[in-house]
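Entry 14. Ran structure prediction on the chain below.
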Amino acid sequence: MNQELDFMFLKYARVWIPDPEEVWKSAELLKDYKAADSVLHLQLEDGKDLEYKLDPKTKNLPHLRNPDILVGENDLTALSYLHEPAVLHNLKVRFIDSKLIYTYCGIVLVAINPYETLPIYGADIINAYSGQNMGDMDPHIFAVAEEAYKQMARDERNQSIIVSGESGAGKTVSAKYAMRYFATVSGSASEANVEEKVLASNPIMEAIGNAKTTRNDNSSRFGKYIEIGFDKRYHIIGANMRTYLLEKSRVVFQADDERNYHIFYQLCAASRFPELKALKLGSANDFHYTKQGRNPAIDGVDDAKEMSTTRQAFTLLGINESYQMGLFQVLAAILHLGNVEVKDRDADSSIIPPNNGHLLTFCELMGVTYQDMSHWLCHKKLKTTSETYIKPVPKLQAINARDALAKHIYAKLFNWIVDHVNKALHTTVKQHSFIGVLDIYGFETFEINSFEQFCINYANEKLQQQFNMHVFKLEQEEYMKEQIPWTLIDFYDNQPCINLIEAKMGVLDLLDEECKMPKGSDDSWAQKLYNTHLKTCALFEKPRMSNKAFIIQHFADKVEYQCEGFLEKNKDTVNEEQIRVLKASKFDLLVELFQDEEKATSPTGAPTGKRTVLSVKPDKSRQGQASKEHKKTVGLQFRNSLQLLMETLNATTPHYVRCIKPNDYKHAFTFDPKRAVQQLRACGVLETIRISAAGFPSRWTYQEFFSRYRVLMKQKDVLPDKKLTCKNVLEKLVQDPDKYQFGKTKIFFRAGQVAYLEKLRADKLRAACIRIQKTIRCWLARKKYLRMKGAAVTVQRYVRGHQARCLAKFLRRTRAAVVVQKFQRMHVQRSRYRRMQAAALAVQCILRAYMARQRYKALVREHRAVIIQKTVRGWLARQWYKRTLAAVVRLQCCVRRMRARRELKKLKIEARSVEHFKKLNIGMENKIMQLQRRVDEQNKENRLISERLMGLESSHAAEGERLRAELSRLRSAEDDAKSNANRVTTLLEELARLRKELETTRSEKKVIEDWAETYRDEMEQMVAELKEQNGLLKSEKDDLNRLIQEQNLQMTEKMCKAIQEETQQLETDLNEERSRYQNLLTEHLRLEERYDDLKEEITLSMAVPKPGHRRTDSTHSSNESEYTYNSELAESEEGSRGGEDVTRGNLDMSLFLKLQKRVTELEQEKQSLQNELDRREEQFQRARARDDEQHKKARSAELEYESLKRQELESENKKLKHDLGEMRQSLSGSAGATSAAPGSPAYKVLLDQLNASCEELEVRKEEVLILRSQLVSQKEAMQHKDEKQTMTEPVLYVEDVQKMRDAGEITQAYISLKDTNRSPQFLRRPLEVNELVNRLRSPNPDYHRLNEDGELWLVYEGLKETNRLLETQLQAQRRSHENEVEVLRGELQSIKEENNRQQQLLAQNLQLPPEARIEASLQHEITRLTNENLEMLNTDDPKKYREYRLNVLRRMIDLMEQLEKQDRTVRKLKKQLKVFAKKIGELEGGQVENVSPGQTVDEPIRPVNIPRREKDFQGMLEYKKEDELKLVKNLILELKPRGVAVNLIPGLPAYILFMCLRHADYVNDDQKVRTLLTSTINSIKKVLKKRGDDFETVSFWLSNTCRFLHCLKQYSGDEQFMKFNTTKQNDHCLSNFDLAEYRQVLSDLAIQIYQQLIKCMENILQPMIVSGMLEHETIQGVSGVKPTGLRKRTSSIADEGTYTLDSILRQLNSFHSIMCQHGTDPELIKQVVKQQFYIIGAVTLNNLLLRKDMCSWSKGMQIRYNVSQLEEWLRDKNLMNCGAKETLEPLIQAAQLLQVKKKTDEDAEAICSMCNALSTAQIVKVLNLYTPVNEFEERVAVTFIRTIQSRLRDRMESPQLLMDTKMIYPVTFPFNPSSLALETIQIPGSLNLTFLTRV
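Output, structure tokens:
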């Protein structure tokens, strides 16, 4: 076996030897092996020595063990030695030690069931595997799914994932997770949530096809192949399911500790639900079919909750409530059928007792007659050539027939559900490609194997053959790709076994032939098998001790099959007459189940076997041959369906998942080697290993080989060409050239060669380590010796001096201590005596007083207790007497009632006996008459005797009365005597008692006096002691005061610390709230974008002219829908009216399909629009939360009416939709019946009614949209109105709305609308539609009766009436809206006229002198106000008068402000006039003084050229209203950050916009302010939407938005912002408007831009992080490359085009320089950098946690070095205090964890204290993944990991493994005022803003 590697069998080499318990056991060689040795001397791991004998014939050596660094590899093909023990050990180490359940084996993913829920299937894990190469991440089912998805998209080829394994291995769960991955990654191409439907099929199929077995609580009892369809964009569009091998026998029989299918137990658990009461179900223990396993519950599973999940899945897949109830009805009937009791009538016949309750319920639920079903359950029909007769069957056959019927019904129901699931998952979109997921049984072998195991193993033979061919093909392709000489590899071909089963005269062929024989039996079939195959086929054997069994040598193992039951199970027959009874049922669903049922092949009952019975779903593509297909045997059907499956798999690219069951006891993470190796052999994993090992299993790229084995090369061997270098080195290291081959890109090695190279490398490294250790240890020892020598001399010197000083000091202290002790002891003794004396006196005094008081209290307490006891005892005696009396009375009542009942019962029995006697003895009437005469005579005698007795009684009564009177007199006398005697006795007793009390009192008085004396003495002594203790207490008090002061200090410190912690907690809460708010803003932005897109789509669709039918004038208001449905409907109607040809029915059915699809799309779009509208309303309400409370009430009053109206319309819309769906289903259900008469009047009427209903549905949708648009417009108008009234009149609107609410107008409007919608026509319509639907659903509908009373027209008229009412309301709203518009236009016109008049007046005033100008303006205002006052006095409307008063008041305020402003202007001008006059005077005086005597004063002065002073700008920019669009376009929309903006002042666009805003504020133009701000915000959003992927653009506008926001704050006039301004800047503050609300809007916009910046930055950094931080070797040569398997990982060597750490640093520099260039605030830059570093740390750590090859000591060093480079970058940019370093703390701690020691408890404690930023799951994951790269490293022990887990158990943290890479820290914008003066800003010409004027 290992002869070629005999040179490796040296001393200390480790090998594997067989072991009966552990399968394989490890041992170590004690001496070298020589070729002539026949025995190996080994030592086991437990220390025992062993002599292992070699086979003398073959001389095969045991398997060599792989080096420890290769153990635990992700891919088994990476092992140097590929054999069974290596595979088993590798899987065990990964499963037990590392808790890893997935392992690659070439192209196979081996999945071991952990029997424990693991947190490795969340959305974060899916995102981590999405887009990754299969070898780049640790093995996972998601990696296989991603590979299939990627190959489908890349190769344009369909894919298959084949999941196999035995029951309990986890096949179903693996398939489920694969489908979940596809649904999450791909999404759906439409809004129909197809991926949710695909996932929803899982709970349905698990409910009806899964059951609890001894091996698995959720075992799939059928195989299924699910094809998930994708479109061209690779979105899920649908799915299709094919099922195989349903285990029908489980319906009627379950073994111990097993259950029936889950759906039965779910039904029983939900039987208390009201809708399921009619099924008459109860507990699962009440039914025979569900209680045979004797364990109806599963731990941790709530069947009632699972029932709700199943029903939700049914609903999601379109199976409505009525169908669901029908399904439950059939299932409940099966349960009741199992409880039907059959009894023996005689030996050959049986009978069901009459009125059997369960059979009655079965017949009631199934809609069949009781007599027919009870008859055919106990009889069968036999047919001969001449006659047919009915024969009773014995009890056993009757029970078998009952069970066969139950199994048949369930199989039909199962197929029906599968068909409907496929219909729900079907799509009309063309399927581009698909991925199939096959979940089927693995190879099975039991003690008793029957027909089911035979079919299962046959299917596995076919799958194994396909698997072998695929593996062989891949190997061949790899060799040819690398141009390596191809040699034929011998692998196991199981075609002979397949031929034995399926070929002509094979097992199945002979079985089908025997089934056709009239007297065929299992024994005769077995003999045919022996005669045919026993001598001709080596794979077929006969058991020695049996003639009814055969053995087949399968690829996995030999299996012995028992022939008993093969024929019956292959026939799978059921009683034909029972099927006919079911077909005659009145239950529609049951008829639908059996509509394709044909006659059975045999009229006999079902088989009696208790093993599984198979059911194969028929091929739906061959419906035309239904009868012929049904007659096929089960084996033939299964062979055909298996052949179809193999054709499908061969046409796809397969991916294999082999599920392994680690133990049979369902214990978590417990590995049984025997069971595991058995499954590995059966599932083909070892065959893959064998094929790989036969060639060149180990493969290295030249770069990887060079990096790994560079240490074996000398410097002269290293050439520039690495490929040539590798060839030269290999020729020197490996002498045999056949051990390796050189390919184009890889080197191929034979098995064991990598281990040999690893041994050479380890020896070389070990020799180097020894030399390094020798040198370093010598140097360390010498350094240590020199340090110790110098330290010893120094210590001696200091110690001797210290000792001398200590001796002198000791002598001085001894003398002083003696003196101090003398005086101190004297003082202590004297003080102690005085304290004790004082304390004793005080204690005595206090104690004596205390004892006296206690004695007094005891006496008082005893006296009161006696009184209480007396009262209570009396009360208790009375209560006892009352209870006893009541009990006696009650007992008497009960006894009398019991006697009366007994008497009544006797009388009833006598009456019944007489009646019964009369019935039985009708002929005894004469005797009864005679007896009656005798009775009459006796009655007469009795009457005489009674008269005598009455006389005697009367005399006796008189005598008795006299005696009683005498007796009463005597008793009264006796009582008087007794009372007198008792009184005397009582008095004597009282006298004796008083004497005793007197004596007792005297004795007690004496005792008290003695006690008082004693107490006085004791108290005096106690007082003295207390005085002494008082002194002690004072000293203790002082000590306590001091302690209290210290505690106060400690408490103060604790309080400070608690306050600090509370502050930190508040800051954390604030950040969380800020983050939540910013996330809401992000969602709001996304919804806005979605809303804009939808609005554009609606606008485009409305703009397209729609041909076809137009509605009449009565419905003209709603005929402009944005959908094209009406045109389609019109075209269909015109086509149908054009001619009545034969294809009329087909056209109508296609029309209905179009209608159904269109209604679904419209419903989804309406729902999405509704959701977005609701979210927008919520966001709007939050944004307006700061408004005044009165404004909120005013807005909600009008919104109330609109929302209520919308809700009513939507409810009516849902009703119409429901009615339309029912009519469509009815029509489609009766399509077969109506096809014969397509031109009938009822058919036309129904079509017209359906078309009209669809049109009305579209009209309703249009009206809803119109109402929504009106709602939005009213909101906007209301918002503008509120803003305007905020600056003008905030009171009137609130009062008007309040009046409207008080008057009840809103409520009345809503009630009127509601009453209109609930008019009799509306209430009657649904009933009529329901009645119509019921008639359509009848088995034979009479269409002439459908419209006999005009029901269809009533429905149509009702819909039209609804439309007219809604139309009238809409038109009334429109008229009111138009009236409001007209009023507003009139007001606008009057305002314009007033404005013109004011301008004319202003022009006239400007021509007057200043004094006359002021007088004229005041006179004009007085005149105007007088006229308006007179007009308003004449009016009678108080509202108008109130408005007029407010306007007058407002104008007066404006006039006063103007007057104050003019006064200030006058004062300013006067000051300037004085200054100028003074200057002129000075100039004149100077001129007069300079006049020479010869000059005359009157000489004319020469004119002086006075220069014009430059205008003083105010920092404002003026623009015209029509230039606003041009301003926004040039400054925002068309501004390029990389072009013009580079040379601008940072934030220049923000300054320009603010200067324009200042001018609008200066001229008091509120409309201009509003439009400018709105245009600015919308334009920035447009730019970001268009160029949001450009980092420079986003950074530029983030900087400018923040600067604009800071300007609004800086110049707002608020004191908190003005304190940073200069005097000039304070003069530039806004004077007229408060823009605080717009500051909030701008802040939200800045948050949105910041988040977009982070996303843009993340998209750029994401591809660089893993390669640069993990894969690239920044420190060359530190981390060696380990051998990899078939799944090659991305090389960690830096090639051209790969990212390195320098790439990340360059990108960070680019980000930082761009933000600095744009003038971004420094605090904001810090927050961006912090977010950048968080992304880098999170992505790196997540990949580290998912990649086992990255968890090593050397990789930890690389990570720490990379992190240090990032910290250095922070230090260079002065960003160390921004918090970015802290975000890398988890990554730093993970790197440290990889490098620290991991052995002792001290190491565990250090790790727990060090890794405080990592969660427990992350720490354990890193420790489990830690992998040695070199032999010098050691793995982490399992006990050490358990120690870590126990120490970290008390941590309160999230269990999530991965970090959230999508998390964004909340951003803040600290106020950053600008020192730039606005008046100094110059506008460059490159901006094209020449239309702006500086003011």
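The CA atoms of residues 372 and 581 lie 7 Å apart. Will compare against last week's run tomorrow.
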